[in-house]
Amino acid sequence: MSQAGYNLAEIAQALGAELKGDPAVVVRGLATLQAAEPDQISFLANPQYAKYLGSTRAAAVIVAPELADQCPTNVLCLKNPYLGYARLSHWFDPMPVPEPGIHASAVIDPAATVAASATIGPLAVIEAGAEIGEQVIVGAGCVIGARSRVGAGTRLHAKAIVAHDTVIGQRCNILSGAVLGSQGFGFANEKGVWHRIAQIGRVVLGDDVEIGANATIDRGAIADTVIGNGVKIDNLVQIAHNVQIGDHSAMAAHAGIAGSTTIGRHCVFGGASGITGHIQITDGVQLTAMTMVTGSITKPGVYSSGTSADTNRQWRKNAVRFRQLDAMAKKLRELEKKLEG
User: Fold this and answer.
1) What pLDDT does 308 receive?
2) What is the pTM of this model?
């Protein structure tokens, strides 16, 4: 837990919350309602945890206004408590922030440009023509390819890889093992033999983009692969060449996007979603987990295709029925014709 202390008055002001309680109370950390100590602050965003509100030992709780009277301690009222928690979490984040400078073991090409306020970690490699902006943090073992650009305030965690000619916007967060600008899966077939197609496009990331651990984004085959502002991509997501993702969309782990697909703004894709190539998905589409999309989606809304788990016995019965659907549909049409006659 962080040793820094903040009184409720300054927290309420920073969050734009209405404080009901003692403004002088100091908190030194964040915790759940169940685990909070008297010097910690908590929050209630999910209704299923409301049962813990009355017994919490927290110094204060961020809650929706309608629940304030149920809280036995100091209250910070917000319409969106989860957002308040998200903002406050950075006050107590223990992740180290390194001092600016270049580690002695880093390898930086003389033709690269590195801002004086940037941090280059041990064994990092910065290739010729690369540009590293102000207050960028390049973690241990990262590779920044030739002519790539990394915008101000971006952080690349240990062993993130940025291939040549990749463009990364400002304030992005690239987690360990992510690979940006890898070769797209492009091959031409001649008599059963595959021949690689050179991938000559780039990857371009907007501002405030988050890329999870071991996620991969392929460079464009000809045109660029483009990730819009504010996009959030979870661990182990695969984005193929020439994909375009609109601003503020989000994708959970194991989602896979095939090549040349265009995805709109404010879309949310659940874990293990699969999107075929060369289709368009409009703004505001939500896919639940394990949804498979094989055609364009032109209307916003929630879409599903995966089936929930059942007992093996019941699943087997349903699987048989599924294979019978076409025959059943034909019989139904025959009966309808007889009834009409």
Assistant:
1) 83
2) 0.91
